[in-house]
Every structure is written in structure tokens, then in C-alpha cells.
Amino acid sequence: MKSQLPKIFISSTFYDLRQIRADISNFIENELGYQFLRSEHPSFPVNPDADTIENCKQQVENCDILIIVVGGRYGNIPNGEHKSVTNLEYLTAKSKNKPIYVFIVNSILSIYPVWQNNPTSDYSSVVDNPNIFEFISDIKKDSKWIFPFETAQDIITALRLQFAYLFYRGIELIKKVGKDSSDLDPLVGESFRLAVEKPDGWAGLLFAELLKQEIKKRVEVKLAYSHKINIGNGEIIRDEDAITWLTSINNEGRRFIVGLNIIINEALSEAFTNKDVQKINSSAKIIGSAYEEALKWSLKIRKAFINKRYKQLLEEMSLMLDDSIIQLEILSDKIESAVQEALTNITSETITVKLEVVLKIANELEVYNQIERLKDYQD
User: Fold this and answer.
1) Contact by Cβ (8 Å): 319, 249
2) What angle do CA 14, 17, 23 make, to 5 degrees?
3) In DSSP terms, which residues pair with 35 in a beta bridge?
């Protein structure tokens, strides 16, 4: 049975913060009863096939909460990397949308404004590497919650309050789910939070998040498409049927793009106007399916067996949906950006989101030139 205890991962340099790590460990494990992950402990899960940094990054991905403690040491920089292990663990947690609590020792925070004004000065009396300040600068851009500390007890007091808040928030989410739970059953992670809490702009943000998940589901098909893998049986095109078949494929690709434009705009309209979780989820799934069909359509063309004189045209036709595929992959980011921009410019109770999505044939001219070349060949 999978443990339901929260997994807390601490990321920091070891030797200068050893006692602080031990005190936090005692609080997490013995007072709260949560699972506490730290690399120096014998129970820390290790993948023998991965190096130290990969093991730490894997554990960050598996944890529920990341605690970052920044002292006067920047820490080890693994071979081939430009950032410390702690910095990389922070970036991993950020990319996975993990809750992150950052604690920075007071003496470093107090000198940080001085570094901002004089970044090339000598700070060796305070830190072992000025990259610490770069790290703090990155954190400040991403996080609204940074806690200064002097002792481990400062950290423990802050964590006690923050964990209590998370507990309370969980109770509130359970209350909000209520009778609408059937609509929320398929949702996980960020999409679940958006559907339950319904913050400003939630419908568009939920659609973007669900669309992102749908695109990720097709990673294997995209991999085959990107590497131009043509595994499997392909259609055999006889010479006398080649022109008819190629014309049909050309028309099919154009109809596909027209259909995609209609599907996307209808789905966007559905998401932003009706604000129905089930319909938003269905709209994201429809676009995800259309994305998969676009990839498979291009793969089908590449697998066809045809006279080599038609190969260049065949290759160009297999790229007809390239722009559409790219646009579908970045659509979730465009939606998020449009919603966030709208939220920063609210002038009334109504949020106006400006978003235009137009799919086209990126290699229109190349396809035309190849068709004309074949006409000349026939003449």
C-alpha cells in the first residue's frame, strides 16, 4: 500500500548546515511524523544506475514539499553543470510545481542589496562563491515567500505555521469539492486545484493545463515524428495511381488545417464562455486527439512506398502540418500568457482575453513548386 505520509525533501549544503538539517529532521520525523528525505541519511533512496545529482533530482520529483536552506556556501557544482546541486534541485522542484519553502540566513540577505549595486566586489568574507547571490536573485524572481533565519528554531517555527496552513487549505478544498466531485474525478495536480478554487481566469488556465497534459500524453508519437521514424507497414502506391493519390493527400492536408482551426476556436470559445469543467476537459481532449491525428497523418505519408521521382513532393507533403503541430504544442503557453495579461489589466468585473490562433501550411510554396515540377515532367 502506498504511504499517505507527506514526503519532505531538504536541499542545502551539508557541512556548514549539518546541525540545522538534523534539527529540522527531528521536527519533521519525530514531531510531525512525516517522511523526511535528506541525502546523508542511510534510508535515502538511491538508484545505483544514476549519479549523485540524478538521484537527488529524482527524489525531488518524488517529494511533496521542498525546503531550501541557503547559508554561506554555494555548494558542489557537478561535472558538466554550471549550477550547484541545491540550485538544480530548486529548478527541478520549480519545473514540477512543487511547494517550495526558502530559508536564507540573515547575514546573506542583509548583504544581498549591496551585491545588487556592486556585483563585482569581493564578498569572500561572507560567502564562498558569489553565485549564491545569483541563486537568491533567481529565487526572488520566482518566489513571494522567502524567510530569513538565524537558528533552526526560526525555520521550525515558520514551517509549523506553513504546514498548518496547508492542512487548513486541504480541508477547504475537500469542502469545495462536494457534489461536483464527478466532474473533478479525472483531474489531478494543478488542474484539480484550478477547478476547485476557481481563481480569477480559472477557466482559461484550466483549459491550458489540461491541454498541456493532453499534449504530453502523445510524447511517443511526437518522438517518432521528430526523428522521422517510419516503422510499420506503409501504403504501396502504383505509378499509375501516384498523381491521384498525391492530389488526394494534398487536399486532405488542407482540409485537416481548416478543421483544426475550427476545432481550436470552438474549444477556446467553450472554455472561456461556459466555464463548465466537464466541457473544458472535453475540449482539451478533442484538441489532444487532433494533435495526435496530425502527427499520425504525417507519419502515414512518410511510410508510403512510391516511385522515387515523387519522393521530394512526398517529403514536403509530410511537413504540411508542421506549423499546426508546433502551434498546438505552444497553445497552452499562449493561453496562460493571454489570461495573465488580461488579469493584470482588469478594468471591470469582466476579464477580456485576447488570443488569436491561425494555423497555416508553412511550406505552401515548396509543395506548389514540387507539384509544378512533376507537371513539367509529365508534359
Assistant:
1) no
2) 110
3) 7
Cα 69 to Cα 27: distance, rounded to the nearest angstrom? 15
C-alpha cell at 349: 468585473
Contact present, 195 and 277 (Cβ < 8 Å): yes
pTM tops 0.85, yes or no: no
Q: How many alpha carbons fall within 13 Å on the CB side of residue 27?
A: 19
Which amino acid is located at 119 in the chain? P
Over the stretch 128-178, which tens digit does the pLDDT of each residue have?
999 999 999 988 887 667 899 999 999 999 999 998 888 877 776 666 655
Q: Which H, E and C letters describe the chain, residue by residue? A: CCCCCCEEEEECCCHHHHHHHHHHHHHHHHHHCCEEECCCCCCCCCCCCCCHHHHHHHHHHHCCEEEEEECCCCCCCCCCCCCCHHHHHHHHHHHCCCCEEEEEEHHHHHHHHHHHHCCCCCCCCCCCCCHHHHHHHHHHHHCCCEEEECCHHHHHHHHHHHHHHHHHHHHHHHHHHHHHHHHHCCCCHHHHHHHHHCCCCHHHHHHHHHHHHHHHHCHHHHHHHHCCCCCCCCCECCHHHHHHHHHHHHHHHHHHHHHHHHHHHHHHHHHHHCCCHHHHHHHHHHHHHHHHHHHHHHHHHHCCECCHHHHHHHHHHCCCCHHHHHHHHHHHHHHHHHHHHHHHCCCCCCCCCCCCCCCCCCCHHHHHHHHHHHHHHHC
Residue whose entry in the numeric block shows the C-alpha cell 511537413: 319
> Grid coordinates representing 94?
520549480
* CA gap 374, 377 in Å, rounded: 5
